[in-house]
Amino acid sequence: MIKPDGVQRGLIAEIISRFEKKGFYLRGMKMMDVEQSLAERHYAEHVGKPFFPALVEYICSGPVVAMVWEGPNVVASGRKMIGATKPHESAPGTIRGDYALIMGRNLIHGSDGVDSAKREIALWFPEGLSQWQSCQN
Ligand code: CMP
């Protein structure tokens, strides 16, 4: 998910381009405003942490671009392409390493595992995805 700061900074195309050039297939995408309840369910594992209210407020502060990417090891590979959560720890060449400065504005969220990805796809795309598969399969 490209977070509100990624959208506001005009980085949508740059981020999508990195995933496409890597060879991943864009299986679903939508730009949307985020209801507080969706943000809270998405970040359920962080409920009760001190940064939770600000995190929810941030995700709801403007439109996001929710995406589903498909391809070999896309979850693990995508996490590497995104870079470490703390932008000052993210390597140059990663999205956060190249474009983000602070954790509270780290541009993009990527699922941290296949189970999380399945849960998050169901949450963000309750209507389901196109049945077309990548022509690379
Ligand atoms: P994300 O990859 O979306 O997953 C959880 C998010 O919580 C993370 O990116 C950060 O934006 C945010 N986050 C995690 N830890 C902290 C923290 N200590 N302070 C503020 N925000 C945090």
List keywords for this structure.
kinase, Alpha-Beta Plaits, binds adenosine-3',5'-cyclic-monophosphate, 11% strand, NDK-like_dom, two-stranded antiparallel sheet, 2 strands, 137 residues, alpha+beta
Low-confidence stretches: none
Silhouette: globular
Largest sheet: 2 strands, antiparallel
The percentage helix is: 40-55%
Cα radius of gyration in angstroms? 14 Å
Q: Briefly, what CATH class of the domain at 4-34 and 64-126?
A: Alpha Beta
Bound molecule types: adenosine-3',5'-cyclic-monophosphate
CATH topology of the domain at 4-34 and 64-126: Alpha-Beta Plaits
**How many DSSP-defined strands?**
2
Widest sheet, order of strands: 1-2
Per-chain topology:
Elements: H1 4-8, H2 12-22, E1 25-32, H3 36-42, H4 52-59, E2 64-70, H5 74-82, H6 95-99, H7 114-124
Antiparallel strand pairs: 1-2
This protein binds adenosine-3',5'-cyclic-monophosphate.
